[in-house]
Amino acid sequence: MRVLSAEGEVLGHGHFSPHSQIRVRLLELGEQSSGEALLTERIHAAVKRRSGHPLLEGCDGVRLVHAEGDGLPGLVVDRYRDTVVLRVGTAGMARRRETVADALVEATGASRIYERGDAAALRREGEAVQEGPLRGEAPQEPIAIVERGRQYLADVVSGQKTGFYLDQREARNLVERLAPGRRVLDLFCYSGGFALAAAKGGAQSIVAVDGSKQALVVAEASGAVVDWVKADAFRFLRAAEPGFDLLIIDPPPLARRKSDVKRASRAYKDLLLHGLRCAAPDAQLLVFACSHHVGPDLFRKIVFGASLDADRPVRVLGELGAPTDHPVALDHPEGRYLTGLWLEAIG
User: Fold this and answer.
1) For 246, which of 5, 95, 182, 238 could close a Cys bridge (C-beta 3.0–4.6 Å)?
2) What is the CATH number of domain 36-135?
3) Residue 11's pLDDT is what?
4) What residues form DSSP beta bridges with 341?
5) Could you report how far apart the first and last alpha carbons of the chain are, in Å?
């Protein structure tokens, strides 16, 4: 639809959603509209930008389209070898899924295009949730991928999001480098991304905790020497004995809406407080919040409060975030949803 100024001047064109708080997702400025061809053009451009990128070499799993970061609001696309998985989150993209699928086949040559439904987003948009193959057949089992020499399984059909968390690639690289000889605790491990990185890096021991039996079945299929524990991560951490040298605390989104921030902040603080209490002297911690409502400044304050309450000083060794195939548009800062800190417990 056209976007008009108060004076009736055409400012641009975008996708209209009558049921959403965001009525229009702007796609292009100016009086002239490129129509459906714009989607195809931007999908091709996004795929081309990733092709041969030096920071994506050695990775079978890559994000091909990152919504506003690639000028395609409401569309996320991940590739796992010959399977491309898309998630649509707006009415405009939901109604153009066939155009999107055609463009992805042209741009990637993939044999399968599979859709995973973003149920919460589509309900807000007044759209039906759709899941299943758009081109080709549905994968019959998790897809084996390689990421910088690490072996993983992406559960495209039944797993979370599109099947794997590609946004933690750089943090997994760091865990592999930090792991040698360390006693590792991976909380909210899902299918074992961090735990398997630690195993490849030569960790002394690894405990990985998640509440999903299905995710742990996928993780266990790796054959790595890891103590996989099905448990509520909050309860596990409160009862954990001290002695871990490397802790990864990567909970699911705790603040999906702005109204969730206060409750989410308490939950993050609880995790960090008990994480510090069971950390060995001079332990390293990688801690994350994956909601743009809990940004870097607030997250640092939460960490500081947990450090005070635990009577455990920490220093920040680095900031962590999503990798290069998850770009953020300068005019859409909400696209920076993943906040992470690399910490060292002092003493």
Assistant:
1) 182
2) 3.30.750.80
3) 61
4) 287, 319
5) 60
Give me the amino acid identity at 55. Answer: L
Task: Considering only residues 34 and 170, tell me which one the structure prediction assigns the higher pLDDT.
Answer: 170
Task: List every span in the chain annotated with CATH 3.40.50.150.
Answer: 165-345
| H/E stretch holding 274 | helix 261-277
290 carries an active-site annotation: yes
AA letter at 136: G
How distant is the alpha carbon of residue 134 from its chain centre? Answer: 23
Q: In what order do the strands lie in the sheet with 83-88?
A: 61-66, 75-80, 83-88, 112-115, 132-135
**CATH 3.30.750.80-classified regions of the chain:** 36-135
Catalytically annotated residue among 59, 189, 278, 290: 290
Neighbours of 158 (CB within 10 A): 11
Q: Is the distance from CB of 18 to CB of 3 less than 8 angstroms?
A: no
112-to-226, 298, 305 alpha-carbon distances in Å: 33, 41, 47
Please state, in angstroms and rounded to a whole number, the distance separating the CA atoms of residues 31 and 13: 8
CATH number of 165-345: 3.40.50.150
**What's the chain's average pLDDT?**
92
- Beta bridge partners, 205, equal 183
| Predicted TM-score of the model (pTM) | 0.92
Q: In this predicted model, what pLDDT tens digit does every residue of 261-312 receive, in sequence order?
A: 999 999 999 999 999 999 999 999 999 999 889 999 999 999 999 999 999 9
Q: Is the pLDDT of residue 4 over 70?
A: no
- Per DSSP, the chain holds a count of helices (H) and strands (E) of 10, 17
Query: What is the DSSP-derived secondary structure letter of residue 140?
Result: S
In this prediction, residue 244 carries a pLDDT of 98
The three-state secondary structure class of 85 is strand
Q: What is the pLDDT of residue 14?
A: 73
Place of tokens 């206060």: 262
Distance CA 318, CA 212 (A): 30
